[in-house]
Amino acid sequence: MPEPSTPAGAPPRGTLPPGASPADAQPGAVEELLALDRRHVWHPYGPMPGRSTPFVVESASGVRLRLAEPVYGHRELVDGMASWWSAVHGYGHPVLDAAAHAQLDRMSHVMFGGLTHEPAVRLAARLAGMTPGDLEHVFLSDSGSVAVEVAVKMCLQHWRSLGRPAKRRLMTWRGGYHGDTWQPMSVCDPEGGMHHLWSGALPRQVFADAPPSGFDAAPDEDYLAHLHETVARHAHELAAVVVEPVVQGAGGMRFHSPAYVRALREACDEHGVLLVLDEIATGFGRTGRLFAAEHAGVTPDVLCLGKALTGGYLSMAATVCTPRVAEGISRGTVPVLAHGPTFMGNPLAAAVAGASLDLLLSGDWQGNVRRIGEGLRTGLAPAAALPGVTEVNVLGAIGVVRLDHEVDVPAATRAAARAGVWLRPFRDAVYVMPPYLTDDEDVARIAAAVCAAAEEG
Ligand SMILES: Cc1ncc(COP(=O)(O)O)c(C=O)c1O
Questions:
Q1: Residue 438 parent element (H or E)
Q2: Rounded-to-integer distance, Cα 404 and Cα 389, Å
Q3: What Cα–Cα distance (Å) separates residue 317 from each residue in 11, 29, 68, 92, 457?
Q4: Domain C-terminal end among 362, 382, 410
Q5: Are residues 196 and 330 in the same domain?
Q6: Binding residues for substrate
Q7: 57-88, pLDDT tens digit by residue?
Q8: Which domain holds residue 387?
Q9: Which stretches of sequence are listed as region Disordered (predicted)?
């Protein structure tokens, strides 16, 4: 998740150590932790030594983060971020805790080469069954970025195996984000992804213009033609088109019409290019459909999943492909997928992921996402009248307030904390995607905090 390296801007702090209650405050313990943190620990997109003062979290339960010491009188903050889209069931959920404990009692990890185990097999079968169309072969890896690397490798290897090695470039549209390892970075938005920093080093990919904004907006005919034309012009050198369907997340928090995803599917089919949909952020219900591709009625050749896969408990991601992609790879002189990370299929993560999917599918996720969306729509409406706010958008359980300037992250974070809520705005967007079990009162509180953050940021 790209974000500025500006400090969280924590308010004046007390002296509670992690794990302590106010009764056993030890003066200086939190200060010591933060001093060590600044000296030794890289944070996302952070400088070294660190310059920020993050809030110290000692535990998390339900939709609340419990801090080691109070901020603005709040020992707990309501989480508006679901830990970057992942904690859809909140924290410390008894079903997920039980699954993790039970699996720990059996084994936390064994290698996946030459061995297999029930949690990974059941999870893969489950994903094959619930993802769109004929997506059925599952590669389990450790993080979203790696899932995208694997997707790219599948596509390149597919074409190489079919005797078409020239098809090795990728096409995407501007405004995307696909992770921080090398191939994903090459299809991130060139400006937001800081391509200038890597010029000459990153693979040069093909960029279409960013999709026009608006989930419900009528599709722009000129843009549809632009997509078709770009795929057609580069098809001879394209292994795949890689995009986030319907929601561009960390590249800018913008929604677009599903018609553009459909257009890409058609263009890819027409011109012999594979389509990779990156649903690492949108997968598992966040947009109101189990997968955002369903809004477009499209099955990609390769689908990337992560984040909410384990309910945010452990790092695991999945790259799921169709038989056509797998068969292509199998026809090569090296008829195997050339990838095999140490922690592939990790049993602990797979067991929790299985439990998380059970929990999701046995509950009313759709009703909850709809309810949260309605609460955000109501609660964020006043933001539209704030000076500097250019748009307010809600889709599924995602709310975005956009400003006409870069958010002052420390000021916005402080404003949200004052309202008892954890937010992490970036660029020009104050945004939220709360856990699905967030109740109406907390949704209203989160929305009020977004308004306060937008006003002060
Ligand atoms: C759409 C998308 N793809 C890929 C990634 C990278 O995932 P990870 O941070 O787990 O490597 C992210 C992370 O924000 C994402 O939103």
A1: none
A2: 6
A3: 36, 36, 31, 21, 34
A4: 362
A5: yes
A6: 84, 177, 307, 340, 424
A7: 999 999 999 999 999 999 999 999 999 999 99
A8: 48-79+364-456
A9: 1-26
User: What is the residue-averaged pLDDT of the chain?
Assistant: 94
Domain co-membership, 70 together with 136: no
Q: Over pLDDT 90: what percentage of the chain?
A: 91
Tell me how far the alpha carbon of residue 367 lies from the centroid of ligand 1, in angstroms: 26
CA 209/CA 157 separation, integer angstroms: 27
Picking from 313, 328, 362, the residue at the C-terminal end of a domain is 362
Structure tokens at 65: 């983060």
396 and 339 belong to one structural domain = no
CA distance to 57, 145, 153, 285, per residue, from 339 (Å): 36, 14, 8, 29
Averaged over 176-187, what is the pLDDT?
96
Which ligand 1 atom minimizes the distance to the CA of 278?
Answer: 1
Q: Which residue ranges make up the annotated binding site?
A: 84, 144-145, 177, 278, 307, 340-342, 424
Radius of gyration (C-alpha) of the chain in whole angstroms? 22
- Using CA atoms, how far apart are residues 3 and 409, in angstroms rounded to an integer? 9
What's the predicted TM-score (pTM) here?
0.95
Do 287 and 150 share a structural domain?
yes
Taking the centre of ligand 1 as the mean of its atom positions, its distance from the CA of residue 281, in whole angstroms, is 7
Please determine, for residue 13, whether its predicted confidence score (pLDDT) is greater than 50: no
* Best mutation site among 186, 307, 398 for ligand 1 pocket (most ligand atoms within 8 Å of CB): 307
User: Among the atoms of ligand 1, which is closest to the Cα of residue 249?
Assistant: 16
The answer to whether position 243 is within a domain reads yes
Task: Return the pLDDT at 2.
Answer: 61
Q: Measured from the CA of 145, which atom of ligand 1 is nearest? A: 11
Give yes or no: residues 117 and 131 share one domain: yes
- Quick one: average pLDDT of 426-433? 97
With respect to residue 277, please indicate whether it lies within any of the assigned structural domains. yes
- Residue at 29 is within a domain: no
Nearest residue (CA) to ligand 1, atom 8: 144
Ligand 1 centre to CA of 436 (Å) is 20
Number of domains in the chain: 2
101 plus 71 within the same structural domain: no
Please tell me the residue having the least CA distance from ligand 1 atom 10.
Answer: 144
Residue 106 sits in a domain whose CATH number is 3.40.640.10
Q: Quick one: angle between helices 94-106 and 347-362, nearest 10?
A: 150
280 CA distance to ligand 1 middle (Å): 6
Catalytic residues: 45, 177, 278, 307
